[in-house]
Specification:
By secondary structure, the protein is α+β, with helices and mostly antiparallel strands. It contains five helices and four strands. The protein has helices at residues 3-12, 25-35, 41-49, 69-78, 122-135; strands at 86-91, 96-100, 106-109, 116-119. The model has no long low-confidence stretch (mean pLDDT 95).
Amino acid sequence: MNEQIDRLIGQYGMSDSFSHIPPTQEMLAEVKEKLGFDVPCQFLEFLNCYSYGGLGFEILGIGFDGSIAFLEETLEYREDGLPGNLLVVENCDEWLYCIDVDTNEIVSWCIDEDPRVDYSCFDDYLLNRLSDTIENL
């Protein structure tokens, strides 16, 4: 996990900011079976350390109830035309932040538009989202 991300979360996070429930091997196998790809490495590192939550925003991971929120959201939005190579990591209502599993870039997607690249990788996305939130505290 990126040291700067760990430091910011440690400094500004609360005890309940993240679920801290890592995915099991069975969960990861279910994701691969239902989506057709493995969870990308940087996102898997986040899941193993923090899982679900954020600071003023919510990254989808493993919920307190054991649900695989990023899987559920991805499957739901595939019914609305989400491309098969995208994995939803944050739902911002009007759009979604997704990992393009072919490039590992973070793209924003909404129903009426093609995906737009916003970040080069998950760590860049997370660091930016954390920094924005901290600036607005």
